[in-house]
């Protein structure tokens, strides 16, 4: 018996992609500082993992920003609302200029880039990295949280498009 895992069939891979296209996910921008300065990317894989200690997880794939974030000691996870759609699109496009003079951002005293206009900013220390296929799964403990009061609707990613949530339904009947 070999130590390698079975490779999913192309059918399973395509069905997996289809399943998650139909599963809405919150949207975040993850930022870090690397040897060449500030980097960031849009992520729809951020999830709460634990409350004590406060921990979140997300994955990154390939690209310069992703590799810098995966190697960083600390990051900022910005949870965004519909008001930040243009910012989200900028960080989703690898060719778009980021951290320009027209963006409302700063470098925190601890060294990470902070996007000031986002609804929530969670400064984190990466505590675990796991390579999985072509991705790296990162777990990060939240060290500090900043909030900006906003009545803007949450932004979600669903079926390769951004959407807002406009109607709530109570979780308990």
Describe this structure in words.
The protein is of the alpha+beta class and 173 residues long. The protein is built from 3 helices and 12 strands. The strands form 3 sheets. A 7-stranded antiparallel β-sheet has the order 3-2-6-9-10-5-4.
Characterize the overall form: globular
Low-confidence stretches: none
**How widely separated are the two ends?**
50 Å
The residue fraction in helices comes out at: 10-25%
Chain-averaged pLDDT: 89
Say how many strands there are: 12
Strands of the widest sheet, in order across it, are 3-2-6-9-10-5-4
Task: Give the percentage of residues in beta strands.
Answer: 35-45%
Q: What's the number of helices?
A: 3
**Strand/helix succession:** HEEEEEHEHEEEEEE
Radius of gyration over all CA atoms, rounded: 17 Å
**Major sheet summary line:** 7 strands, antiparallel
| Estimated structural class | alpha+beta
């Amino acid at each position: 018996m070999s130590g390698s895992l079975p490779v999913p069939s192309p059918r399973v891979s395509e069905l997996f992609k289809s399943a998650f296209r139909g599963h809405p996910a919150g949207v975040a921008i993850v930022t870090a500082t690397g040897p060449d300065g500030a980097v960031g990317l849009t992520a729809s894989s951020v999830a709460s993992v634990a409350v004590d200690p406060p921990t979140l997880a997300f994955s990154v794939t390939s690209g310069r920003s992703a590799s810098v974030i995966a190697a960083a000691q600390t990051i900022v996870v910005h949870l965004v609302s519909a008001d930040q759609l243009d910012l989200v699109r900028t960080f989703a496009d690898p060719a778009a200029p980021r951290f320009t003079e027209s963006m409302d951002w700063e470098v925190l005293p601890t060294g990470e880039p902070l996007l000031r206009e986002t609804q929530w900013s969670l400064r984190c220390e990466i505590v675990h990295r796991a390579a999985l296929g072509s991705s790296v799964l990162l777990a990060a403990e939240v060290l500090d949280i900043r909030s900006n009061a906003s009545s803007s609707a949450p932004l979600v990613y669903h079926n390769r498009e951004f959407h807002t949530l406009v109607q709530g339904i109570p979780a308990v009947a």
